[in-house]
Amino acid sequence: MIHPPLVPAEPAAAGDGTPYSALYDDVYHSAHGGLAQARHVFLAGNDLPARWSGSHRFVILEAGFGLGLNFLATWQAWRESKARGRLHYVSVEKHPFRRHDLAALLAPYPELAPLAEELVRQWPALAPGFHRLHFDNDRITLTLLLGDAAALLPQLTANFDAIYLDGFAPARNPELWTPGLLAAITRLSGRHTTLATWSVAGELRRALEHCGWQLERRPGFGGKREMLVGRAENAPQQQQGSSPRHAIVIGAGLAGSTISERLASRGWRIDLFERRAATQEASANPAGILLPHLAKDDALAARLSRACYLYALRRLASLAAVRWSPCGVLQIARDAGHEALQRATVESLSLPAEFVAFLEQPAATALIGQTMAHGGWWFPGGGWVSPGTFCASLLAAGDGLIQAHFGTEVAALRQTAEGWQALDHQGRLLAEAPRVILANACAANRLLPHLLPLTPIRGQISYLPAAFADSLQAPLRHVICRSGYITPPEAGAVLVGASFDSGDDTMEIRLADHTGNLQRLDELLPGAAEGIAAGDLQGRVGVRCAAPDRLPLIGALPDAAADAGRAPALEQLPRLAGLHALIGLSARGMVWAPLAAELLASQMEGDPLPLERELVRAVDPARFHLRALRRGRPVTGRS
């Protein structure tokens, strides 16, 4: 499913000053006050905050984010009610405001100022798809679905407690009130889900009643005599997990650290095992590069990469003690043909310039201060990250719920009636818990009865001499990449890399790879490698782990020994109860890991998922087993 580019809302006002949409010829809220309307119609209409009192988790769906007043009023009420659980607020918006316009529109509400400022600070680049934002130390989670509700709501995995129907009037915006869309919303409802809306239109009432909603009219707000509330008494009861919130995580690199922190933020207790004395492999490189993947047709991998990249930027900005810099990344075209493709890609996607722009060769040269062979993509928010400090910051943020066991190898797993046991090489018990997450890259296969198709990929980086940066025509301030990459000196050293040797997991430094990295340097900065001898360079080797499709494996692992029947759907495949994976991050660990961990933690906790259903299926670790079943062949892999 390819999403069309977003068309941002343009701020305007009706004659009485009420925010107005020229696209729909309608106002965003009642002339009697948007905040008062939010409290009367949507909070009181859903009997909030009384209904969330004592809830471990309360989930709200809003159709029509608009100015964000309903969200901010709900957040404020959650705070004032001193609720102890977590609030998930999911909202769909086809025409979101730009960040500076949203800030101006919320300025007239001083009582919301601290909340509005934080919302504006985290407001995402206006790219279509799902965007997850966290507030109040993860007690409030906002998931924005930017795009057409008819396309995005069927892609949502969630179970809602309350629903705010707040689009423009049905006569002005009929797309948001269709029977099909209301049926999609109903499918996301459980027993006792409520809804509220200011509209009492006859077609709306009939469509909701047809979906099984029990409706009643209540006094409306402002100039409206009535409003509508409903209860989904006939919807099926959704099952909630009840196992103890305790998990074993194996591997303390990017994958293991991110999933440990995401689960700890939800109150899970974590036993984290790492066979080395500290974070190693690619997660211990001095710097990792942060940039998304683009495709002209905005295909699945590109949409997944974009969602992960934007989420990673927000997570990095929220963590203390991480060494990183959003210094910008310039991805130089390989040749004239590739340059034309890059230009066409930016034009076809129509993404905001704060996300990506195409720079012609003169502009690229001016940006870097040195002659570039071609133009390229400019990602102004991209940059470099110190993976080690990122992992350390995540573990420190675990609020004492993460018990790290470094220098301890889990040699075997044993399933029990209560969950799983982790054992050492002598068969001694290291820990037991209802859930286990394999976050140990290709080594995961050593613990599995049926191998996953994982391949090690060796990567060697080279440290350029300290004097290198001084020899350039201009200071190196940005990351530059093509087939390789170079980092600015602020990353701790000028790094050039990296080799990409599929199927190779040897750790020795190779002179040939230093030579290859110098060739990559010359592609990035023509002539810059002159006078540098490969034999004089220092370097480091890390081994990544990749699946055949180069997408990560996130979720519950398949039970390959169980009878799956004939060509089942992915969701119907039998799973190994309590055994999960977060592996296969390949060479994009810094981009994939944060949202991958949020996805897995959401699956384990029963939260709304932060990605479209189509993207969740694309990273399901059972996908290879399903393909093998359909081909009549076993899944194979190497450890």
How large, in whole angstroms, is the Cα Rg?
A: 26 Å
State the major sheet: 9 strands, mixed
Number of domains: 3
* Name of the CATH superfamily of the largest domain: Vaccinia Virus protein VP39
CATH architecture of the largest domain: 3-Layer(aba) Sandwich
Kindly state the percentage of residues in helix.
Answer: 25-40%
The number of distinct helices, counting runs of at least 4 residues, comes to 17
- How many beta-strand runs? 31
- Assign an overall shape: globular
- State the end-to-end distance: 34 Å
Structural class: alpha/beta
Proportion of residues in β-strands:
15-25%
How would you describe what is shown here?
The protein is of the alpha/beta class. The protein has 3 domains: 20-231, Vaccinia Virus protein VP39 (Rossmann fold, 3-Layer(aba) Sandwich); 246-280 and 388-451 and 556-631, FAD/NAD(P)-binding domain (3-Layer(bba) Sandwich), CATH 3.50.50; 320-383 and 456-546, D-Amino Acid Oxidase, Chain A, domain 2 (2-Layer Sandwich). Helix content is 27%, strand content 24%. The strands form 6 sheets. Strands 15, 16, 17, 24, 25, 26, 27, 28 and 29 form a 9-stranded mixed sheet that branches. The chain has an 8-stranded mixed sheet with strand order 5-6-4-3-7-8-10-9, sandwiched between helices. The chain has a 6-stranded mixed sheet with strand order 19-12-11-23-31-30. α1 crosses α2 (69-80), α3 runs antiparallel to α4 and α8 runs parallel beside α15 (589-605). The two termini are 34 Å apart. The mean pLDDT is 93.
